[in-house]
């Protein structure tokens, strides 16, 4: 019982950390307008990007530099998967899975609404930020 309580505390801490890294204020950090206003090619540093988006979910290295990859709902998915391995945390895992599904459904509904209203703002589920050898943003793309 004591171990289950410790595990639940750890999962709760991870969940709160995941929620806080998603950002607040209702801004979509995966919209072209947000990225354009916060990431300046040739100026923004890796440290500044990490301050905005946190640690990247994945990264790639090439002869030209490094690319950091961020997935919109990665925090929900990661914590949900981790919680599935903790005894007694099945309800937390299920709740996180439902939150991820709800977030995806909301994103799809928003895209359909934008399309019907003629809104051409670009929103994505993945953000790629490529840095040059000096760790300055070279370019970014949203998918």
From TrEMBL:
Signal sequence interval, chain numbering: 1-23
PROSITE patterns in alphabetical order: PROKAR_LIPOPROTEIN
UniProt keyword annotation of Signal present: yes
Assigned keywords, A-Z: Signal
Name by which UniProt lists this protein: Lipoprotein SmpA/OmlA domain-containing protein
Organism lineage: Bacteria, Pseudomonadati, Pseudomonadota, Gammaproteobacteria, Enterobacterales
